[in-house]
Write a structure and sequence with these properties.
The protein is an alpha/beta fold. Helix content is 36%, strand content 16%. The structure holds pyridoxal-5'-phosphate and zinc ion (ZN).
Length: 406
């Protein structure tokens, strides 16, 4: 495993030490990147060969040198589309807690355990809360999660079942973030909000290592990533930079990075179109792709930078197109995508139509989570109702759970 040399600010590029737990840059509040001595890694570790650890920790050579809190996250399948020869889906549904958020939380909670932190808090669009609750339970750490009260029911259930302290908020993730910020000092919580601590990016960067390894250590032409806070996109770009420094990837052009948003909450797509360097708060955010309901991502400047530098783009697709693509992929590919993943498939169709990409381009789309986590929302969108039926099991008295009413 790699020793951390420092944490580098993504904005002002000053370095701080990782000896103590850190949130953001003490000078400018930019997000911090974990830096390793990659020259040393280059000499001491080869890129993984066939076999090896079948989780994201197969890349331990470029992950912090701590004991992992792991539930088997990562090393997810790269599936070739049945219909498009050059299109691949990175199927993140197979992660613990059914979403890619497991990767980031495995890394963040491993570090929290290493630092001896006892109480973690996070605002979440839903899946990060479920993942934090699970990894905190595995680590014996308290989790305090704040999420909109209309998150997919599965996310609420996860929080309760894993024994987290759950607060359902009448608002959006931005309101949840404010509540964590206001209370964390008095409560002694360490804030693991997206891009406000350095290690969730480290977990998510493994998606970049994996997709390149699974493509034979070659870059695809484009990567589609459903973007809320943007951690995965930012993490993958960091992975590409590291892989190049290590000589692990065949020399070639980096993929076009395509950030996909929902039209009902598209702050970064709007900023991209306007040529801005940062986004503005997206008012009245609403989409059934719950994970994309982030009205003002903290790392917006990084997402915009990466989309531009990679000659990619940031686009948005509306809920009708997302639902149509979700059903299209269920019926023709046998994959029940999450709405966020279906935003990526809808965006792929759009960019083929406009000629931004050609069918001959090798493309990886991220299905960031399991469609089954969204049973209530997909059923609602499909106007499906369960026929009335008798209960097949006896009523039970309620079991414990820690819920904080708002
Ligand atoms: C299924 C799913 N996809 C995509 C996202 C967006 O992820 P990120 O915040 O890394 O952009 C989320 C965030 O909650 C999510 O749950
Ligand atoms: Zn800074």
């Amino acid at each position: 495993m790699a020793a951390i040399t420092s944490l580098e600010c993504s904005r002002c590029h000053q370095h701080v030490s990782a000896d103590l737990p850190r949130t953001v840059c003490p000078h400018c509040a930019g997000s911090l990147y974990v830096r390793y001595d990659l020259e040393a890694v280059k000499h001491s570790a080869a890129r993984p060969g066939p076999g090896g650890v079948r989780s994201m920790w197969r890349y331990s050579a470029v992950l912090p040198d701590v004991k992992p809190v792991t539930l088997g996250e990562g090393w997810t399948p790269l599936l070739r589309s049945q219909r498009h020869r050059n299109l691949y889906v990175k199927e993140e549904a197979t992660n613990p807690t059914g979403a890619f958020k497991a990767r980031g939380m495995s890394a963040a909670v491993s570090m929290a355990k290493h630092y001896g932190l006892e109480k973690l808090a996070a605002p979440s669009a839903g899946n990060a809360a479920g993942a934090l609750a699970a990894y905190a339970a595995a680590a014996g750490i308290e989790a305090h999660i704040f999420m909109p009260k209309d998150v997919p029911f599965a996310n609420y259930l996860e929080g309760m079942a894993y024994g987290a302290h759950v607060t359902l908020v009448d608002g959006l993730i931005s309101d949840c973030g404010r509540m964590v910020a206001e209370r964390k000092e008095a409560e002694g919580w360490f804030d693991v909000s997206t891009l406000k601590e350095p290690f969730r990016v480290e977990g998510k960067k493994t998606m970049g290592y994996e997709l390149v390894e699974q493509m034979g250590w070659e870059y695809p032409d484009a990567v589609f990533y459903p973007t809320g806070g943007g951690v995965g996109l930012i993490g993958m770009w960091k992975a590409f930079e590291e892989m190049e420094a290590l000589g692990w990837v065949k020399p070639g052009k980096r993929p076009k990075m395509i950030a996909v948003q929902a039209s009902g909450c598209a702050p970064v797509a709007k900023a991209y179109r306007e040529g801005a360097d940062a986004s503005k708060m997206f008012e009245n955010a609403a989409t059934f792709a719950a994970g994309l309901r982030v009205p003002k991502p903290y790392g917006d400047y990084l997402i915009l930078e990466i989309a531009r530098e990679s000659s990619g783009t940031v686009i948005d697709v509306d809920d009708d197109a997302i639902l149509a693509s979700l059903l299209d992929w269920a019926r023709h590919e046998g994959l029940l995508l999450c709405p966020e993943g279906a935003a990526a498939t809808a965006a792929y169709d759009r960019l083929i139509e406009t000629g931004f990409l050609a069918p001959s381009d090798r493309v990886v789309l991220f299905n960031t989570g399991a469609g089954l986590k969204y049973v209530d929302m997909i059923a609602d969108a499909m106007k499906l109702k369960r026929p009335a039926q008798e209960k097949k099991y006896p009523e039970r008295s309620p079991v414990g759970g820690i819920i904080t009413p708002v």
